[in-house]
Amino acid sequence: MECGVLQMIAWLDRVPIMKKSDEILAEICLKSSDLRADLGFFGKVLGMRLDLIYPADDPSVAVYSGHGMRVRLEQGQGVNPVLRIMTDDPGFADGADALTSPGGTPVEVHPLNPPLILPETNHAFVVRRLADQAPWVIGRAGMHYRDLIPDRLGGSIIASHIRIPDGGPVPDMVHFHRVGFQLIFCYRGWVDVVYEDQGPPIRLTAGDCFIQPPEIRHRVLEASDGIEVIEIGVPAEHITEIDHQMSLPTPHLRPDREWQGQKFVFNQGAKADWHPSRLPGFVARDTTIAANTKDVAGVQVLKRGEGDPAWTTHDADIHFTFVMEGHLVLQGEGKDPYTLEPGDAFVIPPGMATRYADPSDDIELLEVTLPGAFMTDQRF
Questions:
Q1: pLDDT tens across the length of the chain (380 residues)
Q2: How far apart are CA 52 and CA 37, in angstroms?
């Protein structure tokens, strides 16, 4: 017995130690009811590369790679998932958008860079009050989200009240959004963000805002305790994509660069000038966002001014307002009045007459419009 153990140890000493490979391969396994016919389909129709096949005399397994994936075909019966291929080549698979391989694999072909679809706005008068206890939902990177427009006006816009209860580093990655318009307005606290071609990290403090042009790479780095921001995105459903290749900050500073016709904007509230507002009884500061997005959107902050508030209408497609400080009574034509306080939000449809009555001296409103011109209606 002892001799046998010694012999085993001596044998193990001569066996090379298996080293853990640094490379990991993943593949999707598909069943094929006709492997021979599938060889031509995956190779010629889908344009994939044959990497291995066996046994040679009567193949039952074939592995293909291409289009960023690896597929293992095994002779046999089974229900396969949909194989989704994304390409902007109109001639791929002879232009087909849905195929089935001879061996039973369903294939869908979708655009690699699908066009941004802006749904038609479902106009409505919407009031969202903080006191109504709308739920906070934990979203990306552990941030808490509160929906300010529940029906999202038919999918045309999303407005989120976002908070991070505990400050410190944010577990974010370099990413971008496939979006038509996006605003980040700092409501409370501060947050550090780094952007592609905009230099070192930028600290956004209360009253400041960013315009994130479509597909600009960025990363949230750190935030103060109790940070709160208002985020507006058009359309409501848009893709957030991680960029695993880019490191931020980038080496070049290009403040005049445009992304799909829009420039990056960092507007600081403390440096802004105040001017008479379109609304009687209020003054406004422009965030320069209209100019830098070529009038895709307008963003202003309103405060109490001289004179009495008046009834007005607007012809913007979307008119969203968030109450940051103070209180007012929102009166709407044919609607019951609403007393609004900090954290409340509302949407006014075009053509509807409203008045911001009894505003407190410390009233402060964030107003986002897109697009359209405003007009005052003195009929009331």
A1: 333 433 433 443 444 544 555 688 899 999 999 999 999 999 999 999 999 999 988 999 999 999 999 999 999 999 999 999 999 999 999 999 999 999 999 999 999 988 888 899 999 999 999 998 778 888 776 778 999 999 999 999 999 999 988 889 988 999 999 999 999 999 999 999 999 999 999 999 999 999 999 999 999 999 999 999 999 999 999 889 999 999 999 999 999 999 999 999 999 999 889 999 999 999 999 999 999 998 899 999 999 999 999 999 999 999 999 999 999 999 999 999 999 999 999 999 999 999 999 999 999 999 999 884 333 333 33
A2: 16
What is the rounded distance in angstroms from the CA atom of residue 278 to the CA atom of residue 375? Answer: 8
Give the three-state DSSP class for 259.
strand
The one-letter amino acid at 72: R
Cβ proximity of 125 and 321 under 8 Å: no
CA–CA separation, 326 vs 304, rounded Å? 10
Give me 249's structure tokens: 């900050």
* Residues 140, 218: Cα–Cα separation, whole Å: 14
HSE-up of 43 (CA within 13 Å, CB side)? 12
Structure tokens at 39: 């060889």
Q: What is the DSSP string of 115-143?
A: PPP-PPP----EEE-GGG-PPPEE-GGG-
The answer to whether the beta carbons of residues 279 and 378 sit under 8 Å apart is no
Sequence-ordered list of residues with C-beta below 8 angstroms from that of 308, at least 6 positions apart, any chain: 280, 281
**pTM of the predicted model, to two decimals?**
0.82
Copy the structure tokens of residue 331. 């009166």
Q: Residue 124 corresponds to which amino acid?
A: A
Question: CB-based contacts of 148: which residues, under 8 Å, 6+ apart?
Answer: 128, 159, 160, 161, 230, 320, 322, 345
| 338 in Cβ contact with 127 (< 8 Å) | yes
- Which sign does the torsion angle of CA 293, 309, 269, 193 carry? negative
